[in-house]
Write a structure and sequence with these properties.
9 helices; 6-stranded mixed beta sheet; alpha/beta
Length: about 220
């Protein structure tokens, strides 16, 4: 593969409610399904020859419209799943702060979490790197689409660019049904040609309730 599109899934009800999804298997809501349908023609224009997806439903439902348009089978890989958050899954930030105050403090200050059931960023970085290595080293030439999640997408982009886990945290989480465009150079190095690309106008990037809640006041 010499081009990789890393796509975040469409919107879910938990996205709007600000609930941590992690490895929980949540469907797209009506807006998310519409986002996937709207993005499909744009993604199809890249002429993908392979389409990979996390095996969680919200990712598969995002991959399906473009797969149907181009006639490419979706290949599932659970290594592309979102970071597993264990007991935090299904909770809002307020609920996490109330039930797990010390880990919530560490999370907000970007310190490593200590809960044994929560996957570390380093673990996520390694598992997604293993998946992407198999994809980019495949003998098939052309463009591959990888549909995954906000956290796993950041780690995939950083990993393919050769970044360690730490610098990858400087990337924002992509909006729902948006993607990154990575291309391999003749030197063999990968470069990022676009990040958080999507159908809506550029000024709407980062306008979701969750994204707004993480930003400093203007």
């Amino acid at each position: 593969m010499n081009r990789l599109l890393v796509v975040r899934h469409g919107q879910t009800e938990w996205n709007i409610a600000g609930r941590i999804q992690g490895s929980s298997d949540i469907d797209l809501d009506a807006t998310g399904l519409a986002q996937a349908a709207e993005a499909a023609p744009e993604l199809a224009a890249y002429e993908p020859v392979r389409i990979f997806s996390s095996d969680l439903r919200r990712a598969v439902e995002t991959a399906r419209p473009v797969a149907d348009l181009v006639g490419v089978e979706i290949e599932l890989d659970k290594r592309l799943r979102e970071r597993a958050y264990g007991p935090w899954e299904g909770l809002t930030h307020v609920e996490i702060a109330e039930r797990f105050p010390e880990d919530h403090r560490r999370w907000r200050s970007q310190e490593p979490l200590q809960h044994p059931e929560i996957e570390t960023w380093a673990e996520l970085h390694r598992r997604t790197a293993d998946a992407v290595k198999d994809i980019v080293e495949a003998e098939t030439e052309g463009t591959a689409i990888v549909v995954c999640h906000g956290g796993s997408a950041r780690q995939i982009v950083g990993g393919i660019l050769g970044w360690e886990q730490g610098p990858t945290s400087g990337l924002s989480g992509m909006d729902n049904a948006h993607w990154a465009d990575l291309r391999r150079m003749r030197s063999g190095k990968w470069r990022l040609f676009g990040y958080n690309l999507g159908v809506p106008a550029a000024h709407t990037i980062g306008a979701s309730p969750l994204a707004k809640g993480q930003q400093a006041s203007r």
